[in-house]
Every structure is written in C-alpha cells, then in structure tokens.
Write a structure and sequence with these properties.
twelve-stranded mixed beta sheet, alpha/beta, 23% strand, 21 strands, single chain, seven-stranded parallel beta sheet, 543 residues
Length: 543
C-alpha cells in the first residue's frame, strides 16, 4: 500500500465521508472498493451505493479496452458487494445486459436506459425471456432514450416498444420515452392502439414524443386515469377529429407541457380548446410555432383565452412564434407593445418582431428566465440575453445575412450550446477575412466552447467559410458536421487548406447534403479529415 493511501486511511470516518461526498459516487466506488477494509466499508455506505450511473464513467473512455476493464471491475468486484443497496441504475447499451443479469437488486425501483439502439430496445422489451422481466413488478420509475434509428418501419417498432412497456411493468408510475438523436427520431403513434389493451392504472407522470395531435389526445381518453403530469412533444399538430371522452382526466392534470417543432395553423381550433379544459393546472409549458393568424399571440390573448381559467396556475413557461400573413397595417405592434401586454399578468418575458411588409410579420415571445433546452428559430432581430439551458439552436433569416457580430452575440447568449443549425441563403456583406492589429486581435475572437454539432445544409457558403476557415472562430469540441460536399471541397481547396485542417481533422461524423447515391471522394479527403479514418467510413452518412 502506498504512502498516500496510508495517510488517507489515518483520517477519521467523519472526515473521510465529508471528503468523499464531494466526489462522484461512481468514482468513489471504482477507486476505493477493495483497497483496504476501512475504505472499502466507507465506499459501500448507502450514500454512495443507492444510485449508480455507469454511463458517464464508461463514455469518458476513448479506449474500448479501458471501457471493458472498467465495466468488468463493476460487474465482478463492485456490484456484487453493493447490490443490496442499489435503488437506481443508469445504463447504456454496453452495460445493460451485463449489469442487470448479475445482480439481485431487491431495492431497485428506478431504471434509466440511455443511448439504446431501437433494435436493441425492441429485443429487450418484446422478448418474454428477456432479463428485463425479472424487474417487472418492482420498477416504478423508467426512463428510456433510444438512438441509431437507421432501419425501416422504425415508427412501428418505436410504437410497439412503447406499448409493451405498459404490459411488462405493472406498477410503473413514472415513464419517459424519447430519442437521443436530434436529427433522426421516430415518434410513436397511439391512435391505433386499443385502450382495452394499451393502458395503465398506475402511471401518473408521462413524457413521450408522438406523431400527431390525435395521438396526444389519446393520452386523455381514459387509458391513463391517474395522470397528473404530461409532457408531450407532438411532431405535427393538425386538425383533429379526436374527441376527449374523459374530461375528468384533463381537468385533474397538475402539470402539462406541449412542445411542437413544426408549424401549425391549429392553435385556435385545437390547442386553445384543449388547454381551456385544464382548470386545475399548476404548471404550464408551451413551445409552439403558429402560422396563418391575423394577429400575434401576446399576453392579452394568452390571458383571455387560456390563463384566466387556470386559477391554480403557479408557473407558465413559454416559447411561442406567431407568423401572420394578413396583419392590419394600422395595428402593427412594436416589441414594447407586446411586452406591455405581459406586465399586468406579472410574467417576465422578452420578444422581437420581423416585419416582411405591411401585412406579413413574425413575432417570437419567450418567458424569462428561459429553462428549455431547445428554442424556436431566431433571426437577426433577436435581442440577446443569457440562456444557460439552451443546447440546440436553429438560426434563420430570409431578409438579411448573418454577419460576424451575430454569431458573436449567439456565442455569448448561448454559452452551453452543443448544436447549431444555420439557414440563410444571403451572402455576407462583411466577409470573415480580416487582419486585426496586435492591440485589438482578441475583439474578433468568437468561442463556442461546447459546440459539438454544426449544420450548414440551408446556409450560404460564406457561413461554412467563417466557421471552418476563420482562425478566430474557436470550436474546440466540434466533431459532427452537416454540409454540402462540394462546398466543403471548395472552401478547403480540395482538402488542402491549412486553415480549416485543424477543425476538420477532429471530425468524427460528417453528413453530406447530396443527391448522388454514391460519392466519389477526393483522394485527400480521408487524410484531411483524419479522425474519420480512425472510426471507419460507417460514420460518414449520406443524406
């Protein structure tokens, strides 16, 4: 035993626990189990063994052999010693089979599965002999995040997996079913699932992505009669013929969140009538992109049509875009006009407006502080601010190009952004190339410290140049790129340009926007994007 271990062991149990509680519990287990009797006993304290998350410690290791070594240690040396304390497990595709098969988890009630390929999820939750059935009566809290949706009939498979969950876990009261991949996901479709087969009398918290608004309404037809919290992402909000037969379920809801990424014309005809029935709501979250209205959605409209019926409401969070095509020229509101409509209700918010002509405009209102991970598309008129929770962003402008200062403002407003998608066909008026003096060179630097994914599919080539060629555009974590192949080839001078090489050399995943079924790559391509070579051409996907 080395000197440092002896010194640590000499500390009192109370002092050691104080120190260890400042560390990640999984790191404590991995480092101290089996070191000596005292440290082993402290590490096996329920403080460190109640909840085990193996995803982070495994995902941080680039070497497959190191990942396997860590997983082996947990499966052979650690989990057998602490299994009687484990109440919560967070696992991924690498660990789920091994970990769930080795333990007798009598206290396990919460299970989180992330980065789970949909095919694997289908096998696990459709096969009656699957190890997952050992826990069907004790799991109360289940979270599933799937990915790698690369095969046909994916919507059908996702729907079957979702439905089978309720047949397996008889006592489930909290269920979240979603998708890791922002660009490729498959929502479930509930409309054709019989309420006599697909139902639950125990679920009270449900978070799910569905395809149509009809599927959303199915959640309130009586098959889930204990619901108090519903978080639903609807891919398409269309005119629905579905009738809510059990209005008691809707009226008893305490929390409701509705997210829809696509445009809808059914705000007044479908969304407002549904919300008007939720009289007992305490928390409401809306993220909508509404089109074809004759006026912008503002504080007055929200209060008169929705909020005044919710006397118990304590929290209202919103991110709402309204696009109008028949505005009255004499009634064109300013941003301050929109802000004033929220003053009486006491909601903190901000907004901006784009007017295309005297009859057409777009208004974006959002609550502050903003706590959603996604925000609807923003334009040049976005006023800025600080949005610490936003991870994915789409920027677009049909009137003006995005200049250098716009991306500087975005980097400051969204410091934890991991994905940025740019849609703007306008060429920049002020090109990125500049030669700042030594005195002011840092004033041009833009840093996206956490940006992993960048898409230019709908953007002018100028933006590809700015992000990849400009040395003052810092992207230390970029590893996913969505771009037109010919544009990338052009700006890198057939993959020889030194300025862009550092960024391209780190890329692990490239999606090319092309109509060709098979690209003929330049001979320099794999040398230039050298990290792709390490991970194989399977990480180069053609759209």
């Amino acid at each position: 035993m080395n000197h440092s271990t002896v010194s640590i062991s000499a500390l009192s149990d109370e002092m050691l626990l104080t120190i260890l509680m400042k560390l990640n519990n999984v790191d404590v287990l991995y480092s101290l189990i089996g070191v000596n009797k005292k440290l082993d006993q402290l590490a096996r304290d329920i403080t460190f063994t109640r909840s085990i998350d193996l995803v982070k410690i495994l995902s941080n290791k680039k070497s497959k052999s190191k990942t396997k070594s860590i997983l082996d240690r947990f499966c052979f040396d650690i989990i057998p010693r602490i299994q009687h304390n484990i109440e919560s497990l967070t696992l991924d595709r690498l660990s789920i089979g091994r970990v769930l098969c080795i333990g007798n988890y009598l206290k396990l009630w919460k299970l989180t599965l992330v980065n789970l390929p949909l095919k694997m999820a289908c096998h696990i939750f459709n096969d009656e002999s699957s190890f997952i059935h050992m826990f069907k009566h004790q799991i109360l809290h289940l979270i599933i995040k799937t990915n790698h949706i690369k095969f046909s009939k994916k919507k059908h498979v996702a729907t079957n997996v979702f439905a089978n969950i309720f047949n397996i876990f008889t006592n489930l009261n909290h269920f979240e079913f979603g998708f890791e991949d922002h660009f490729e996901y498959s929502p479930v479709s509930l409309i054709n699932l019989s309420s006599t087969i697909f139902y639950s009398t125990s679920i009270n918290y449900l978070n799910v992505t569905v395809q149509y608004f009809n599927d959303c309404l199915c959640l309130f037809d009586g098959r889930f009669n204990q619901l108090h919290t519903v978080i639903v992402k609807v891919e398409i909000i269309e005119n629905s013929s579905q009738i809510i037969n059990n209005k008691k379920i809707v009226s008893n809801l305490k929390c409701f969140s509705l997210f829809s990424p696509d445009e809808t014309i059914e705000y007044d005809s479908q969304i407002v009538p549904l919300l008007q029935q939720m009289s007992q709501l305490e928390k409401l979250t809306l993220s909508l992109d509404v089109i074809n209205r004759t006026s912008f959605i503002d504080g007055t409209q929200l209060y008169n049509d929705i909020l005044k019926n919710m006397s118990h409401l304590q929290s209202f969070i919103f991110d709402i875009v309204t696009a109008c095509f028949q505005l009255k020229a004499e009634l064109l509101p300013s941003c301050n006009d929109i802000r004033r409509t929220f003053i009486q209700s006491g909601y903190h918010m901000d907004c901006y407006i784009d007017y295309y002509n005297s009859e057409e405009g777009r208004c974006h209102i959002y609550s502050l502080p903003f706590n959603m991970e996604h925000m609807h598309a923003i334009t040049n008129n976005f006023p800025g601010g600080l949005f610490m929770n936003v991870r994915r962003l789409f920027v677009t402008d049909s009137l003006h190009p995005f200049e250098h200062y716009f991306f500087a403002r975005i980097s400051l407003s969204f410091p934890l952004l991991i994905s940025l998608e740019i849609s703007n066909r306008h060429s920049q008026k002020k090109k990125f190339i500049h030669q700042p003096s030594e005195l002011d060179q840092t004033s041009f630097i833009i840093i996206y410290p956490h940006l992993v994914e960048l898409s230019f599919f709908l953007g002018n080539i100028d933006y590809v140049k700015q992000f990849l060629l400009d040395s003052n555009m810092r992207l230390p974590r970029l590893n996913k790129l969505h771009v037109n192949y010919d544009e990338l080839k052009c700006i890198t001078n057939n993959f020889t340009n030194a300025a862009a090489h550092a960024k391209c050399a780190k890329l692990k995943h490239i999606t090319f926007d092309t109509t060709e079924t098979k690209l003929v790559y330049s001979k320099n391509f794999f040398l230039y994007c050298s990290s792709l070579e390490k991970y194989g051409t399977r990480n180069i996907f053609l759209t």
